[in-house]
Amino acid sequence: MDRFLIEQYVGDGWDGASDLTERLARHPGAWIESVRHIRSLFVPADDSCFHVVAGASAEAVRTVMEQIEIPFERIVPVVEIPSKRSGEPRRRGD
Questions:
Q1: What is the pTM of this model?
Q2: Which domain holds residue 75?
Q3: Residue 67's pLDDT is what?
């Protein structure tokens, strides 16, 4: 699975950002089958949240986000680059 970044504007702060996790818990079937949540980052100064997910394609991620009714600005592919101190190898997908 490749990794994708979901950019989300959350004008209502952290409560809006944490809504993704809550909705995923209520709709596990659609989520678990095609997309896996990796981590989320909330940027209070920008009222933004960035979610890193693993999925088969950007379209698969988009479909799940629409199914669980989470608004988003965009979905783009990403490559994680771990800290050199972590000792973890660089990877694309899983």
A1: 0.76
A2: 2-81
A3: 84
Instruction: Tell me if 64 sits within 8 A of 34, measured CB to CB.
Output: yes
pLDDT at 92: 58
Is residue 50 helix, strand or coil?
strand
The DSSP bridge pattern shows strands 74-78 and 35-43 to be unpaired
Instruction: Write the DSSP symbol of residue 56.
Output: S
Is the residue at 42 inside a domain? yes
Tokens of residue 91, six digits: 């990877």
- Asked, for residue 47, whether it belongs to a domain, the answer is yes
Cα 3 to Cα 11, 14, 15, 77, distances in angstroms: 25, 23, 24, 6
User: What is the end-to-end Cα distance of the chain in Å, rounded?
Assistant: 5
For strands 48-55 and 74-78, give the pairing. Answer: unpaired
Summarize the confidence of residues 42-62 as an average pLDDT.
90
